[in-house]
Amino acid sequence: MRKRDIKRNFVPFSCVVCKLNFATGEGGGRLHVKKAIIYKKNSSSSSYKKYSRTANHEENGTINIQLIPSLEIRTIHIRLIEKFNGMTVYD
Predict the structure, then answer these.
(1) Is the pLDDT confidence value at 43 over 70?
(2) Which of 25, 52, 65, 82 fits 36 for a cystine, CB–CB 3.0-4.6 Å?
């Protein structure tokens, strides 16, 4: 998932994740991601200073991914990944 190519760009991956939203109490659906990369915000950009809310990814067990080609950014829970690059993570 955090693998990079020679130019230091993240390598795309596919996964199936169980959806979960603590704020609304909804969950149970599946998110089928055909192609995505890890999303890292550029800390030197001016928009970073405007929206400097801390995500606490380590504490929450989440990561941001950017879907390709739509460029939509989604937050997923690492513990809820069911398949990664076609391989089952748990049974």
Answers:
(1) no
(2) 65
